[in-house]
Structures are given as structure tokens and as C-alpha cells.
Amino acid sequence: MNQKVAFVGTGRMGANMARRLKDCGYAVTAVYDVNRPVAEALAAELGCAAPESLAGVTAAADVIFTVVTNDAAMRGIFLAEGDNLLMNAQGRLFINCATLSPAMHREAYAAASAAGADCLEAAMASSISHAREGKLYLMLAGDEAVYQKVLPMIEQMSVNRRFVGPAGSAAEVKALVNMVMNINTAGLAEGLGLAAALGHDLNMIREIFSQTGANSRVLETDAGDMCAREHDCWFSAEHAAKDSGIAQGIARTVGLALPVNDATTAQYEKMVTLGLGGLDKSGIAELTFKGRHA
Question: Among 38, 35, 5, 8, which residue's Cα sits nearest to residue 20?
């Protein structure tokens, strides 16, 4: 626990991961976010610095977690001219947790290696509460020796974890996870929407689904919200569109057609176009139930 830790990207996931490691006795020395008031508030809570520069974050820590929104943000923090995390980064370890394209993770890995630093992917398949409680499910990739070196810290953050393989491979697996989750969510919304249009009792339909081949994890997590139109955001439609799009791009690189994923991606992209991207992924029901937004 003598490693100094910093976080870049202090939204709900990043902030709760930082809180968790602080609770576990790690020295969280710096936090950074493009929204400075958010970073400053978290820094005051944790009793750490909120550097104004990315290079300042690297100077303050041994292990730097990044939790950013997309490929462009990732490229900016690692490869931007003038200020980036790789300035004087020799000996540092970067653990990149965002859902990004495999190509971006490989690019970050190569750039970190050239700077004398180590890089791991730690793709998360969990919620905000799991981050706070140290119950994440993590898919990790990079150099296995580096993974073993930081495993005690990773164990404090996760209830389960799997080392997947070389750089980029965890991003590939995470894209598969989110692709299937989003397809299941879209299918559930269509099933419930059709049941509602036919006049069936949706509580009865949900119970029947749970006992048959229509059962799924999203039936448990999203069906009630779809019926009640309660779409408080845990995993946004905008992120669903991005992640299904990542899977779409990966499929194209190997010459594979994924028509169901293509249709699901289009549905989530439609939500973004309609201004519904900030809703939870369960909000896709707004496109399928008669008399709703669409």
C-alpha cells in the first residue's frame, strides 16, 4: 500500500473507485477532471491535490487510473501536444478503465511503453455502487507480469476479475459484453412494448419471461424501469450507442456481419438524436411502447 495513486476522470465511477482505494489505506495523491470543480470537490473530500495539468498528475503518483469517455478523450490525455500523462512518466503504471476501441488501448499501450511506463486495461462490467464497494468485475489485459505486480490493489477493487490477454483484448471482450447486453435490452423493450399494445398485464408477462427462454439479466435489472418509465441513469443510452458502435467497428475489421447489433446500435443512436441519450439504457422502451416519446 505504499504506492501513490491518482485518478484522471472523476465522474461517478472514477470518484467511487478513488474513494474505495482511500478507504483501503492507499494514498490517493491526485485527481484530475476536465470539469475542474468536480475534481476540486473530490480532492477536498479525499485530502489530495487537484493538479491543473496532466503532467502534474503523473508527477504525483506511481499508479494512475484513467476513466474517460471515449477514444478522443483517451488520445487527448496520453498524446496531446504540450501536456499529457506521458511527460516524465518513466516507471509509472497506467490502468485504463474506460470502454474504448481496442485500437485506442493498443495505441495507449505503445505510447506508454515508448515513454518507459507500463499500461494495463481494466475494463469494468459493473455499476457505480460496485465501484464504491470494491465489487467490480474486471477484465484486464496487457503484460501479465505487470498485472501480477498490481494485483493486490486490483483485488481491493473487485470481487471477480479475469486476465484476458495482450493489449486490446480486454476492450474486445468488453465490447462483446456490452453488445450482447444492449441487444438483450432492446429485445426486452420490444417484447414488453408489444405485450402492452396487446393489452396484457406486464407483471404477468415479466413473470412468464422469467420462467422461460425469454429470461435474461436485463429482465431483472431493466424490466420494471421500462414499465414504470423510470430511466434514472446508471448506464446511459449514449454510452450504449458508443459501445455497440465499437462492436460494430470490430466486426467490420474481421469482415463479419452483425445485423442484430446493427439494428440495436441504430436504436440507441436514434435515442441520442431524439435527445434521450442521457436516459438509462432502459429508456430504449420509449421507442417501442405505443404512445411514448417516439
Answer: 5
Using one digit for the tens of pLDDT, what is the confidence trace for 22-75? Answer: 999 999 999 999 999 999 999 999 999 999 999 999 999 999 999 998 999 999
pTM: 0.91
Give the start-to-end residue ranges of the domains of the chain: 4-166, 172-287
List the CATH code of the domain at 172-287: 1.10.1040.10
Q: What is the CA radius of gyration of the chain?
A: 20
The C-alpha cell 438509462 sits at: 280
Overall fold of domain 4-166: Rossmann fold (3.40.50)
